[in-house]
Please model this.
Amino acid sequence: MPTIKFLNEKKTVEVEPGTDIRHAAMREGIQLYTGPHAYVNCMGWGQCASCKVLIKKGAENVTRPGWWERLRWWLDPLAMFAYLGKEKEIRLACKTRVIGNGEVEVETRPPLNLHGEKFWG
Ligand code: FES
Model:
């Protein structure tokens, strides 16, 4: 059975293959959202980009980002600043499904990259 380790919360959960990270987090009471997004978000439709997480380990054990997820980062400034510099590890939790039987390590609520090493300089 695959596992998701939520690093900030120090919690490891077993999930069925195909489970998305957002649902696994919600089931365990783990908060993915910051600020008002805890109350107002797209509920897993991949529209708000507020469920962003960093896949710190086990990226081979999750689905690859689809075209919408790759495009979504560029559609609003906040999402873009979160994305810059973390292109290889940032994902939308609602669009990231666990596959295989390995472990995935996830950092929830990553900070914005406002000093953006790749953007400003
Ligand atoms: S919940 Fe809105 S993009 Fe994931």
